[in-house]
Specification:
alpha/beta; Rossmann fold; 5 strands
Length: about 270
């Protein structure tokens, strides 16, 4: 009888319930849709995880071109990438000044991708937060908004993928993104869901279990397109000129759409 009472208390206590604990550790994103007008002038800032396998920004604007009602994003898209960099390596004042990268009009959205190891240490998490706050201030002073790329975890079969780095990264992303009011783009949750459904899918290259394959970068682009523009990637005909097979394309499109809806509660 006593053991049953203890079990009941553990199951119903708001302090001990695992559901409550999980909710406290992983809060919902504060920004669920892109405020204001649809951003067509977008600057992507990030290392090789963003430009690998065709480039995130390239896949997004080509996906848009294949849409039934395209937004014509290509001319407004710019990207700056430094291999192995974290945010502290980028001259944000220079990059966001109209005219310095070509376009004379200010950007409407600046997308920040840090480093996949940012959350590994206390110093790394503190540095990431400091730079996001600093960059967000500059971006807002230009009249633009900030979006944070929640980069994919290392592949689940790798030592890093089996560590708690992914959990720490998620907590960092949600805390910092919500603090500054930035939209968080849930690439990592989409990769996790794709691996859960198809453990043998190749979303990251084998030599480092980190950089995206074509399928992985296409998944990231689908998540970005659905998150920022509220458009379904499912059925989009863009396939990198026949390089992505139809089954994989539809699978990652579907995972992207369902992940975005779940993450933002749409």
């Amino acid at each position: 009888m006593k053991s049953r009472i203890i079990a009941l208390l553990l199951a119903t206590s708001p302090l001990l319930s695992p559901v409550v604990s999980l909710a406290q550790e992983t809060p919902a994103p504060a920004v669920k849709t892109m405020p204001g007008s649809t951003p067509k002038r977008v600057l992507f800032i990030g290392n090789s995880l963003v430009y690998y396998s065709g480039g995130l920004q390239t896949h997004v604007h080509r996906m848009d071109s294949a849409d039934k009602n395209p937004l014509n994003l290509k001319d407004g898209y710019k990207s700056v990438h430094i291999t192995g960099a974290n945010l502290s390596h980028y001259p944000i004042e220079f990059l966001t000044t109209p005219g310095n990268l070509g376009p004379k009009e200010p950007y409407e959205l600046v997308v920040l991708a840090g480093n996949s190891q940012d959350a590994a240490t206390d110093d790394g998490r503190a540095r990431y937060r400091q730079k996001v706050i600093e960059f967000d201030g500059v971006i807002k002073s230009r009249g633009a908004r900030t979006a944070l790329l929640w980069l994919p975890d290392f592949a689940p079969t790798s030592p890093q993928g089996a560590s708690d780095l992914g959990k720490k990264t998620g907590e960092m992303m949600l805390a910092v993104g919500n603090e500054v009011g930035a939209m968080i783009i849930p690439l990592a949750p989409a990769f996790r869901e794709a691996y859960r459904r198809r453990p043998d899918i190749k979303l990251q290259v084998g030599y480092d279990n980190n950089h995206p394959t074509l399928a992985g970068q296409y998944l990231s682009a689908s998540v970005f397109y659905a998150s920022v523009y509220g458009r379904s990637p499912v059925g989009n005909s863009y396939d990198y000129f026949g390089a992505l097979d139809p089954d994989t394309k539809l699978f990652v499109q579907t995972v992207a759409e369902e992940t975005v809806k779940k993450f933002y509660g749409r």
